[in-house]
Amino acid sequence: MGNYKPNYFIMGVDKLGYDSYDHGMTRVVGYYSELETAITAVKENCCDIWESCYDYVIVEEVFPGLYPDAPRRWFFGYDKATGKYNPIDEPVAYLFYANLTIG
Fold first, then answer.
1. Structural domain includes residue 100
2. Which domain holds residue 70?
3. In a domain, 39, yes or no
4. What total of structural domains would you count in the chain?
5. What is the percentage of the chain residues whose pLDDT exceeds 90?
6. What ranges make up the beta strands (E) of the chain?
């Protein structure tokens, strides 16, 4: 991607399809230019990413440009007891899908 630097988009998801690709209602709540900042914002549920409905979050590395490349992503699940998100494994059903956050 040349000298382009990625952004890290954060998308709330109300469900994850484990047998088939399905994440129901979604909302991109923002992005950061640094991965560590994005991950911290998600783990801490900053600005209430959960919004009482987004039990999962996907953070996706997206490079600028047309038909952007999104080579890496991270999945998180909400813990109602702590009010924070924890890393989870990527569902197998998502392995062949890319550019989830901005299409």
1. no
2. 7-94
3. yes
4. 1
5. 66
6. 7-13, 26-32, 56-62, 73-79, 84-88
